[in-house]
Amino acid sequence: MKILALEFSSNHRSVAIADGKDMLARVETDDVKKPPLAHIDEALKKANLAPADIVTIALGIGPGSYTGIRSAIATAQGWQLARNVNLLPVPSAEILAATARANGQRGETHFLIDAQRHEYYHTTWTLTEETQTEIAPLRIIGVVEACELEAFSPDAAGFPSCESLYPDAAILAQLAVDRTDFQPGETIEPIYLRPIEFTKAPPPRQLD
Fold this sequence. Notes:
Elements: E1 2-7, E2 13-19, E3 22-29, H1 36-47, E4 56-60, H2 66-83, E5 86-90, H3 92-102, E6 107-114, E7 119-127, E8 132-142, H4 143-147, E9 151-153, E10 162-164, H5 169-176
Parallel strand pairs: 1-4, 4-5, 6-9, 9-10
Antiparallel strand pairs: 1-2, 2-3, 6-7, 7-8
């Protein structure tokens, strides 16, 4: 099963293509202005595949870069409309935890993702040789609390106890191998914990 994985939730974006457990191609870039299809086309060429060969698209859905996540979702939705592929949305925090685990990190581990407004998304996972388990779900914390944590983060700059780590599309592709919890494209939404702030405008004044 050919899997295309897209991880655009940070400024370090990645695309990977796998055939089951076998990694066929991987593309990484810090160029956030380059369109997603350009990175995908490069990965397809490296893997010597055509778009029609892709059976499943796995995509990181955040939290993180709202523009990057939206572009990944839009690309996957359009692909499904054209070719009826399976779509597998995966939280980027889960991909980040899996990336840390693949790099050898073990035990209780904190992860931080920039939430803007001097706040951070925080989650905690237990990583073992065989499994990864979320023990504290995503929540938003202030910059002072975030700065005191020993954590992994794609936004680690300026945090003395934080180690830089980006969610990896190659790891996402491996997570997708045994998953079947696919979703229709129109139901996929980015993970965004903030409440939507909306005030209804008053009705127009009647002029005499």
